[in-house]
Design a protein that fits this description.
Layout lengths: L3 H14 L2 H12 L4 H8 L3 H13 L3 E6 L2 E6 L2 H12 L19
Antiparallel strand pairs: 1-2
Length: 109
């Protein structure tokens, strides 16, 4: 039986994936834990930009943080997220680019 919580969870996941930087963060964390500075360097964004995206992903319940001394390390909040991402990446979709607004036009998270 589906509930409103199901659609809320999917909406949060979709919101997180709607931004290319957040999607990249999730795909990297699918491989394992990461420090913000390393994630920022790998993606090519500032640490402040990365911090904002990590805050969104934490708010959506998709990533969690573990303090390690003076640093923090991020990981996917649930191993099933990695499986879901792998499944989504494996899909081949025939998408009409006109059907969805550009990422910069979306207000999310």
């Amino acid at each position: 039986m589906r509930t409103v919580f199901d659609s809320d969870a999917l909406s949060r996941f979709g919101c997180a994936l709607s931004d290319p930087t957040r999607a990249e963060i999730l795909l990297i964390l699918r491989e394992g834990r990461g420090y913000p500075s390393e994630l920022a360097d790998r993606i090519g964004v500032t640490r402040q930009v990365l911090s904002n995206h990590l805050a969104c992903l934490r708010g959506c319940g998709l990533v969690s943080v573990s303090p390690e001394g003076r640093r923090s390390r991020y990981r996917l909040a649930d191993p099933r997220i990695a499986h879901a991402l792998t499944d989504l990446v494996g899909l081949v979709l025939d998408v009409d680019p006109a059907c969805c607004p550009a990422a910069d036009e979306q207000a999310c998270c």
